[in-house]
Amino acid sequence: MTKNSVSENFASNVFNEAVMKERLPKETYQSMKKTMEQGLSLDASTAQIVANAMKDWALEKGATHYTHWFQPMTGVTAEKHDSFISPTADGKAIMEFSGKALIMGEPDASSFPSGGLRATFEARGYTAWDPTSYAFVKDGTLYIPTAFCSYTGEVLDKKTPLLRSMEALNKQGLRVLKCLNMPANRIVVNVGPEQEYFLVDREKYKERKDLVLTGRTLFGAMPPKGQELDDHYFGSIKDRVGEFMKDLDEHLWSFGIYSKTKHNEVAPAQHEFAPIFCKANLAVDQNQLGMETLKKVAIKHNMACLLHEKPFAGVNGSGKHNNWSIGTDLGDNLLDPGKDPLNNKQFLIFLCAIIEAVDDYADLLRLSVATAGNDHRLGANEAPPAIISIFLGDYLSKVLEAKVAGKTSLKDSENKLQTGVESLPVLNKDNTDRNRTSPFAFTGNKFEFRMPGSSQSIAGLNFALNTMVAESLRKLADRLESADDLDRAIDEYIKDIMDLHYNRIVFNGNNYSDEWKEEAARRGLPNLVNTPMARREFINEKNIDLLTRHGILTKEEMYSRYEINMENYAKTINIEALTMLEMAKEQILPAVLKYTKGVLKGLALKKDCGIAAEEETKYAAKLSELSEKMFVKIKALEDTLEAKDTSDIEAEAMYYADKVLPAMEELRAVSDELETMVDEKAWPIPTYTDLLFYL
Ligand code: ADP
Ligand code: MG
């Protein structure tokens, strides 16, 4: 592709502002723009004009259908396609799209999880266009990004609370800015998610039921080589992968996604792409679309893209760094420290508000990334631990300490960076990003939340983050609005946050170390080690107060989400356990028994000829012992599943964590040992070496 064709291709499948400007009557465009900027709803007559223009544009792009694209609680997107076709009196057809069909849709969505919110007699929900996120054409269909609610008004998706949290942050943030006399019409939340993934050969993938059904390998002995040489990270990209990445970029660009960075990651066969940040709701939509595109393009290249958090034991899993910042509609980044952060009041108070929010709602932030898949990563010395803390870096820490000590400038020695490169800006990346072990790190002019799993929607964690910070800003605004002396109020605020929160939640050291776990326990920070432990905190009083106070979710909606997430955890592990049993009983054991039989036959022949085969006899005995052990472990897993505690959904989820997972581990261990003993040609499924190194 030439440079020009890249820019021509860019956003060619998106009905964005440029297209609207070109295709809508001036007045309609103006009112559409206002709707988008202020998050208003669209009136019927404008909707009709927009719908017509959108349809004509989509038809030119080859679309025949449209869909309301929404994000139910499953964490993946959902779509139901309707064609534009409409009958005419003379038995022909015209292509039609009404304003009503643009604004609202009624998918028969009774099968989506609602956590008991909808009685079946009123099971219907409706979708409503989110005009702040652009419509786009993909595979012959016009996609309209929407929110999803029940007819009685309950929120059934991940998008609505996100939009509401952005509104809450806007409201409270503007109050604070007003006190500071800082110009702004809106507070904008920006998000840039870095997406990790694995690529494996599609033919080999199809031979692994575990990958197909659960997204991760449930069996597999370590290959002789893993990631210990660090030769894959940023290494040169293999041709086949390079072709894939090129194709991927072209697809992403056509959807208006500013895919910017691509590189190899730490583990073999692991890669990453990162788009340039944009408004939070758009970033969420684009990340969902990005994940779908990864999978689709991989198929085209006869590969499978694995988005699971831990597809392979023994090498790094995949995450998604959620880069997050808040700014104004006038382009100011409120987290930009500027040249003199010590005297940058606006920066310091927003920073302090975030410190308070993360300390007060560490549990909420933690649980927002708790899934069965992500449990394999967090705390496994490849991703941050399950304990939330903030990394500020030495420089910013010194700034805050100096501020509280009443200083107005830092000593030269404190101010200079120790990089030895004079030309680097004061707060460059090296200074703030050296610590890769922190779950929540300040990186220059944004926070980078490093705990999210690679497969999860980033809607939930961002609505948690936005709302927590909105709450701190609310309290801050209350203080500033009633202050007689603004400067003094600000100084006192910073001092209070430092006293109450700084020494608890800020940690600049190595988050992977055991000392940190002990230190965190002394500080009283929550350590929610698995999904059921984390997710049950969603419905604690503090979190219910927070989300209801800011109008994000009702208490009933929170209980329903708690249930859905617990249930999802239990179901996920149940599927994994059943898949393991099937593979063990129908693939691995039969192969091992057959192979052992051959070994025993050989031994018998040798015995007949009077050939001593001492070691070989031991080997055959060991094979038999392990297959016997495998029978035992299969039975044990079956019994564990049988005996599960179903008294309530939380108990059931806990049971899967405490009882089922360990039983699965034990079964796997036997099989993995056998794998190292059996002829590789006799092994019934592709090995780790096949999957990780032969692309
Ligand atoms: P890394 O070294 O972690 O890969 P990068 O500097 O490449 O970090 O940025 C990672 C992501 O952060 C990108 O998506 C980028 O657009 C995003 N990002 C940069 N600045 C901001 C900001 N102010 N707010 C939100 N996201 C940002
Ligand atoms: Mg990063």
Total count of strands: 18
Helix content: 40-55%
Count of individual helical segments: 24
Low-confidence stretches: 416-430
Q: Which ligands occur here?
A: adenosine-5'-diphosphate, magnesium ion
Strand content: 5-15%
What shape does the CA trace take? globular
Major β-sheet annotation: 9 strands, mixed
Helix-strand makeup class = alpha+beta
Distance between the termini: 25 Å
Q: C-alpha Rg, in Å?
A: 28 Å
Indicate the mean pLDDT: 91
Polypeptide structure, described:
- It is a single chain.
- This protein is α+β, with helices and mostly antiparallel strands.
- Strands 10, 11, 12, 13, 14, 15, 16, 17 and 18 form a nine-stranded mixed β-sheet that branches. Strands 1, 2, 3, 6, 7, 8 and 9 form a seven-stranded mixed β-sheet that branches. A two-stranded antiparallel ribbon has the order 4-5.
- The radius of gyration is 28 Å and the shape is globular.
- The structure holds adenosine-5'-diphosphate and magnesium ion.
- Residues 194, 321, 448 line the site of magnesium ion.
List the helices and strands and how they pair.
Blueprint: H1 3-9, E1 14-15, H2 17-23, H3 26-38, H4 44-60, E2 65-69, E3 81-83, E4 85-87, E5 93-95, H5 99-103, E6 104-105, E7 125-129, E8 135-138, E9 141-150, H6 159-179, E10 187-201, H7 202-206, H8 209-214, H9 239-254, E11 259-264, E12 270-275, E13 278-279, H10 280-300, E14 303-306, E15 320-328, H11 345-360, H12 362-367, E16 390-391, H13 393-404, H14 412-415, H15 429-432, E17 440-442, E18 447-449, H16 459-481, H17 486-505, H18 514-523, H19 531-535, H20 541-549, H21 555-608, H22 614-642, H23 649-675, H24 688-693
Parallel strand pairs: 2-9, 16-17
Antiparallel strand pairs: 1-8, 2-3, 4-5, 6-7, 7-9, 8-9, 10-12, 10-13, 10-14, 10-15, 11-12, 15-18, 17-18
Helix pairs in contact: 6-16, 9-10, 11-16, 11-17, 13-17, 21-22, 21-23, 22-23
Bound molecules: adenosine-5'-diphosphate (ADP) and magnesium ion.
